[in-house]
Protein 1
Amino acid sequence: MGRYLIRRILYMLVVILVVSFITFSLMHAVPGGPFDKEKKLPAEIIANLEKRYHLDQPLWKQYLSYLNDVFVPQFASEGPKGLVVEDDFLINIKITDSFWIRWMNFGPTFTSRSRSVNDIFRQNLPISVQLGLMALMIAIVIGVPLGIISALKQNTIWDYLGMSVAIFGVSVPVIVLGPLMIWIFGVTLKWLPPTGWGSKPPYFLGVFPTNLSWDYWRTAIMPSVALGLGSSAILARLTRASLLQVIREDYIRTARAKGVKERMVITRHALKNSLIPVVTILGPMMAGLVTGTFVTELTFGIPGMGKYFVTSITNRDYPVIMGTILLYAVFLVIANLLVDIMYAYLDPRIRYD
């Protein structure tokens, strides 16, 4: 397993570099620039702005400079006192009293002089991560048991009811379900706040809220359910189909013929093998939910990363685009690595060494 993990980590670095190169190339291939506004700026001002942000340099030099800022530790003779892991995605490590290392600098944002890309990540990315994790938990808690019940009660009222919920979750998008929930629970019944998010910086480990009050959960219920319901429907249908296939295998019939209790047959033999396809889809699903969804954040007025990512594309804000996609790529490759590790737990026949 150790050799496999080292090999996968090296592959992950290669994937992230390839993603950064493709993103950088496509980003600069789009016509226009970050300072092409509806009101045309004088050529002198555009030239000064491009010089300030090093956009007047050749593309290969800009790309290497960006990689250097993000991935290569920067050494300096002055810095913060002591070992500091800042919650703005900048890591400062003190070596001596006059020597320190600064790492993961995503650069400035072209649309704001007072904020950098690291500031946007520090303030908005934790909210998207919190929303995504809660939506993922809702998807697993609803989808997997629903699929199991539907498979074990095939062609009964429980099967039809479970698949009806799954079809509803797949068919009704967030752009419809979100306003409907706001109208029912936020405006009509006034049980839950229709918009907003209940957590603010600082965050524990830079991501998790420190104040888990009832007000926080009240603001998180509707967007988490709206975002997680569609994913739970996918998990329910996949779990049902996989479990139905497994319980018809020969080794399941053999276990039953030996007199093994039905509960043990399902939980110990059938369920673990049937969850392998489910775990496979959980990797990209987790990465997609954790990095946030623009429609959900816009519908419920949540200040996450979705809004900044979309506006950065229209504004040609290159550092925000690059930083967001790199973070998404990191989430995705880590999620896929966790999925591969789970394979070995679910199926003892799978070995990586």
Protein 2
Amino acid sequence: VESALRFESPVELFARGFRALRPRTPLPEISVQFRSYADANSQVRLENGRLQVRVTDLLQGAPAPVLEALAFLLLGKLFRRPVPRIYSHRYRLYLNRRDVRRSLHLVRQIRGRKILAGPKGRTCDLDEIFEELNIRHFDGLLARPALSWSARPSRCTLGHYDPSHNAIIISRLLDSPDVPGVAVEYVLFHEMLHLRFPVEYRGARRRVHTPEFHKAEQAFPRLPEAKLALRRLRG
């Protein structure tokens, strides 16, 4: 089967997926375009009898079985149909390849825009908190990344580390005199742990929080107090 896939175009691969998921529906006109996205994003939509597919150009040279897997994943999501797990496994396995991850990292750096508001907030200075945590928990050995408050006060994402831009972003929601200092420290500490314990890739698996990460996180003093404060903040 894979040898036959090598000779099929992206349009034919999406047509194959469409027929498998919607066998009773007439095949629409299919357009597949590779776009210069800043991430491994791909999109599909069915409009006026035409199936329009936009695929990240990171996959332009991908093997046909990988594009076939993407076709089933996108169409399955579009039509809300389950697809065999082999396709998600195959797709993740390809994205987790070291060379693909390296290309994705470079694309995010070059194409991605990262607007940083800076570390100084109304009530907290992230630079100062970082240095205190660095000395207290990491022997001062962590190189300081770019630190910034988020543009908007998000309740869903209280903090995140962006390895492509080497930046830690903390939700502006925490920059308030009503938020206990221990809560701000814990969120920043959690993101600092991502510097110490990078993401692990094993085959198709991607582990963001390793056992070592969890163990180090448990060493944070007043951890229950910090988590309780964050639960109350989120409502």
Protein 3
Amino acid sequence: MPIEIKNTRGYRVDAVKMVVYGIAGSGKSVLCSTAPNPIIISAEHGLLSLADKDIPYIEVKTLKDINDAFNLIKKSTEFQTICLDSVSEISEVLLSELKKEAKDARQAYGKLAESLGAMLRNFRNLPGKHIVMTAKRKSVEDEIAGTVEYMPSLPGRVLPESLPYIVDEVFVMKMALKKGAVVRTLQTQPDRQYTAKDRSGALLQFEEPDLTQIFNKIMEHSKK
């Protein structure tokens, strides 16, 4: 196949691929319910917050379960948004499975980085489907500088560093108490503490936690 030279002008996306991370109880699972026609792939028992919603989900406990879920969704035209809730829990379930098969822990972590990394890229590459990967938040302390940095939490060293590079959007789910009520927002831009990014250029630094609204803003901006 001959090499084709293309031009970035007019480059468009057919769907949004993102990572959203935050502390437990910040509202990541509920955020998935705001996406258009979602299905949730879950390895945790954290869906109680969605008990009043009508959202289909697939529970996964092994690597085979995840591959089967991927193959099922790949053929389906019913779902517009795929939510992996959460990749932190999914990776921990897979790591537990791999540790039983490996001779030592290093082999298990290496296999996890390889298999989970490939799986996440497979989901990201699904054409025409929004992909939302939620994750726990972890902190990294710099004792010399006296600073703390927050980022998505995954087992090992390779996966936490590579996850933000897999997608175009990385958001932090934040919540604060204002006038006696809990207010949640999505931080889309990085600062000295939080890893975040918005490659679309369509979003404010802080956005309302509504994925349908965010997807529309990014897709409309891509068309201009």
Protein 4
Amino acid sequence: ITNLESAFELASTYLSAGRSNDAVAILDALLAKPDADLRTLASLAQAYQQLQRIDRIETTLERYARLQPDSPEGWYQLAAVQAVQGKSSSTASSLRKAFELSDRRLATNPAAANLRTQVTADPRFEFVRPSLDPKL
């Protein structure tokens, strides 16, 4: 499938028809494309979220974060998905990167979002919070 909109429409049609496996197959084909851009990956993450396929959301967000390595939010969202799955060490690694980028951005833009303070109130981190290094 080459046309992104058509692929998402087809996946949606399959989903509406109760053919979730076929919908996931279409989304997986898009995810497998090595030239998937940020827009495609963001759309895929949303689609996988609607399908409650957290494993695929993580894979999609990993690619997103690597495509936009200087985005603190990309790494933060990846950490959140890893936290929901109880992956403490992966969560810590992704959060460390998000915090480093957030701190760097705050140094030049004090009005920017501070991800260190956001994480304390984010319920997605509730189960891994006790295992996270407080020095993160």
